[in-house]
Every structure is written in C-alpha cells, then in structure tokens.
Amino acid sequence: MISTLKPYALKELKNFSEPKCWFFQEKLEEFPSLIPIEGKISAEHQGNFLAVKANFKTIVNLTCDRCLKSYNHKLKYEGEELIWIKQ
Which DSSP string do the residues of the chain spell out, in sequence order? Predict the structure, then answer.
C-alpha cells in the first residue's frame, strides 16, 4: 500500500470546485519494480457519482520464457472509473 495515500471523506470532496489530486512516488515491497512507482490519482464528486482517474509508471525486470534472458520493461497504466454514490 502506498503510505502517502490516506482515506478521504466523500463529504469533503463535495466542497472542492476542482478534482482533488494526489501525487505519489514510492517503492512498494510487494511489487518488484526497479524504480519507485510514480503517478497521480484524482477524484471529483459529481453529484450522484464519483469520477476517479489514475495513472502511474515504473520499470520492471522480466524474463523471456523462450531464451530465459532478462530485460527491462516500462510499465504504464491510465484508467478512469465512475462510481455511483447511493443517496
């Protein structure tokens, strides 16, 4: 788990006119990356739903199944999710 990310109350997100953003750069023990994972998560309260966007990047070391040589690979993720809020 990323230690710099803390829970945030939905009621608090309602008060912001722009999305709330969290930036992180951290090495995770459970994920064997070569460099710290860095990225951004944003959340915006939009009435009946919460719009969440996230992106991150890092570099991992992989092994080829065919020749068994190791190589580095850039790993990136970009995604967004709409979460319905029960009123």
Answer: --TT-----HHHHHT-SS-EEEEEEE--TTS-BSS-EEEEEEEEE-SSEEEEEEEEEEEEEEE-TTT--EEEEEEEEEEEEEEE---
Tell the residue number behind the tokens 């994920």, with chain if given. 31
Give the contacts of 12 (CB within 8 A, at least 6 positions apart).
none
Buried b (16+ CB within 10 A) or exposed e, 6-31: eeeeeeeeeeeeeeeeeeeeeeeeee
Tens digits of residue pLDDT in 31-79: 889 999 999 999 999 888 999 999 999 999 999 999 999 999 999 999 9
Amino acid at 51: A
- Asked whether 70 and 61 are in contact (CB, 8 A), the reply is yes
